[in-house]
Amino acid sequence: MALMNTGIKAVTDRMPKVISPRTHAIIDYATAAGFFLGAALFWRNHKRAAIASLACGLAEAGNVMLTDIPGGVTDLIDLPTHLKIDAGLAAGLQTLPTLLGFGSDAPAWFFRAQGMSIGAVAGLTEVNQGESRQGRRGPRRKIA
C-alpha cells in the first residue's frame, strides 16, 4: 500500500494546488461524516470495521477541529502539520484492514478508498493562501 501513497504523491506533486484551506476543511468534515456513516452501516455485519470507521472518523474530525484554518475550532496546529497528519492517516488507512484482519472482506475497499481520497486532497491543498484564522482576525491576545 505504500506504493499507492507514493503514486498519489507523484501525481499530486505535479498538479496545481487547487484546494483552498477553507475547502479542505469542508472536505475533511465530509470525510469524517463518511467514516461515521460507514460505522453505522458496518455495525450489524462487521463490528471490527465499524469500530475502526468510528475511530477514523474521530481522528479526521479531531484533526480538522484542531487546525488553524477556517472551519477549525481552535488553532493548536498549523496547516502544514495538518497535511502531514493527513498523509499519515492516509497511509494508515491503506493497511488498517489487513492489520485488523479484514483485508480480504468487503469493508476493506472503503478504508482504502478513503485513504486515497485523503491523500489526494492533502496533496492538492494550497498551503500559502493566508487563510489562517489568525490571519483573518489578527494575532491572539493573552488574557491577563
Tell me what you see in this structure.
This protein has six helices and no strands. The protein has one domain. It is mainly α. It starts with a helix and ends in a 7-residue tail after the last helix. The mean pLDDT is 85. The chain has helices spanning 2-14, 21-42, 47-65, 79-99, 108-123, 133-137.
Summarize the structure.
With 144 residues, the chain is an all-alpha fold. It has one domain (22-124).
**N-end to C-end Cα span:** 50 Å
Number of domains: 1
| Helix coverage percent | 55-70%
Q: Tell me the major beta sheet.
A: none
Mean pLDDT: 85
* Percent of residues in β-strands: under 5%
> Which structural category fits the helices and strands?
mainly alpha
Low-confidence stretches: none
The string of secondary-structure elements, in order, is HHHHHH
Essential attributes:
single chain, 144 residues, mainly alpha, 6 helices
Helix-strand blueprint:
Blueprint: H1 2-14, H2 21-42, H3 47-65, H4 79-99, H5 108-123, H6 133-137
